[in-house]
Amino acid sequence: MMILPAILIRQYHSSQTTMSSPIVFHPKTVHPKTNNQNTPLPSEPYHHKANHNQNRSIAQSGAVATSTSNGTPKIGFVSLGCPKALVDSERIITELTYEGYQVANDYDGADLVVVNTCGFIESAVQESLDAIGEAINKNGKVIVTGCLGKDAEKIRTMHPAVLAVTGAHAYEEVISAVNHHVPKPAKSKEYDPKIDLINDAGIKLTPKHYAYVKISEGCNHRCTFCIIPSLRGDLVSRPIDGVMKEAVALKKSGVKELLVISQDTSAYGVDLKYKTVFWEGWPLKSKFYDMCEAMSKLGIWVRLHYVYPYPHVDAVVQIMADSMAASGGTGGLLPYLDIPFQHASPSVLKAMKRPAMSENTLERIQAWRAICPDIVIRSTFVVGFPGETDEDFEYLLDWLTKARLDRVGCFTYSEVEGAVANDLPNPVPEEIKQARYERLMALQQKISAEKLAEKVGKTLVVLVDEIDTEENIAICRSYADAPEIDGHVYVDNIDATVKAGDMLTVVIDEASDYDLFASFGPA
């Protein structure tokens, strides 16, 4: 795996309600009581032992500068959207680098800029259009790709100067357009580490100790509020040998955590009819369970995102319990499920046309906790969906009170161009949407604080994301915390040997609403 210089990245996480702050050639700032779950924060000052600063600078990645050579064309890249779009950006950059292009880390140094867009909700569409305009103003030569690329007419109407527009995961079209407008350089016959060291893991834009692995593209569901199938098509799974080849390459490159992503992770392999291939001499099915079992043996953290609560997930929860017990928390399939429940009211779920809407999800959650008591469940919810009544919303609050999920994000419903839900009757007024959002998140804030308080005094294995050298603090995550969207574990009084990517065993001595705190030393 290669790490490139910091590039212009704006990411939108589907588990959050608003765009995250743009990352524009500089680190981002995160509060130690970071509101990763979009919940109102208490207004009182925050203090913890050493009176930590309220703002913490977290570097974007473990990026290192690459050398440049005169005459080599450079391509700038603006990546917006979810982690799945980030993986698309990584693949395009890998291909461009292999062809001999260099990646520019600012507009002025680029011969051309590629903007990978998001088109999931209206605010994402607007930010994508703004980013295209910014790239045109600051550079002039722009190629547009990604989900918004499906609406080429809208893009060209607002920005007629764009050189080319392609859709989502249109890798070959993007490369071809770049080649056309900035001819690729002649490859040197001499050894070039920027090219020759690219392995099966490719180039990653994440910090070097974690990486996303996309196992499939598209979705077979037709939820009324979602346009993903029209943007990315039906489910297309990668064969299991390709997935495992990438996973092993990432481990060999030093990655300590793999984040498995797709539109519907638990449906992996359905389109392939669970085809069996041979991986390292053993038969292995392209199937959700088989993939999880194989990845659990890699000896590093493996985290599952975008899992639907189908009955066959129960067996995977058993893998989580077994593999983490065997590793002592340092490797295996993490007891963490990111499940987009979206709502709990049967009538709202029916209007949404959600998969698994007939499942008794509370019973399923109880069954998972019986199998694996330490399992952490994250989810997202939509309030103010057309036709949502007061009774529906109260049903959702009651469900959350009983479910006691660990991590929750929330949207207020907004129309998405092309979504069926736009035509549903009985829209909910904006002020009611906002009031429901605030009530839901206030409830979840209380639940989160109670659940984290239960961690005080317990021993946890944590992965170091960043070192705050001024405060002598390691900013870490436990198995319960996915990067960017969940909380942190802040470890005091570290010594000079601790670095990003290390795993530490710590005892938790304090908790806030969303984060945990520990002191460095023997556990």
From TrEMBL:
Q: Which GO CC annotations does the UniProt entry carry?
A: cytosol; ribosome
The record's keywords, sorted A to Z, are: 4Fe-4S, Cytoplasm, Iron, Iron-sulfur, Metal-binding, Ribonucleoprotein, Ribosomal protein, S-adenosyl-L-methionine, Transferase
PROSITE patterns per the UniProt record, alphabetical: MTTASE_N (PS51449), MTTASE_RADICAL (PS01278), RADICAL_SAM (PS51918)
Swiss-Prot/TrEMBL GO biological process terms? tRNA modification
Question: How does the cofactor attach, per the note?
Answer: Binds 2 [4Fe-4S] clusters. One cluster is coordinated with 3 cysteines and an exchangeable S-adenosyl-L-methionine.
Which annotated residues bind [4Fe-4S] cluster 1? Answer: 82, 118, 147
The answer, when asked if Transferase is one of the entry's keywords, is: yes
The question of whether S-adenosyl-L-methionine is a record keyword is answered with yes
Task: Enumerate the residue ranges of region (Disordered).
Answer: 29-50
Q: What is its EC number?
A: 2.8.4.4
Q: Where is the composition biased (Polar residues)?
A: 32-41
In terms of SMART domains, this protein maps to:
Elp3
* Positions of the Radical SAM core domain: 205-450
Q: InterPro entries attached here?
A: Elp3/MiaA/NifB-like_rSAM, Methylthiotransferase, Methylthiotransferase_CS, Methylthiotransferase_N, Methylthiotransferase_N_sf, NA-bd_OB-fold, Ribosomal_uS12_MeSTrfase_RimO, rSAM
Q: Where in the cell is it found?
A: Cytoplasm
Pfam families, alphabetically?
Radical_SAM, TRAM_2, UPF0004
Q: Where does [4Fe-4S] cluster 2 bind?
A: 219, 223, 226
What is the role of the protein in this entry?
Catalyzes the methylthiolation of an aspartic acid residue of ribosomal protein uS12.
The UniProt entry, under HAMAP family, shows: MTTase_RimO
Family to which the UniProt record says this protein belongs: Belongs to the methylthiotransferase family. RimO subfamily.
What protein name is recorded for this chain?
Ribosomal protein uS12 methylthiotransferase RimO
Organism encoding this protein: Moraxella catarrhalis (Branhamella catarrhalis)
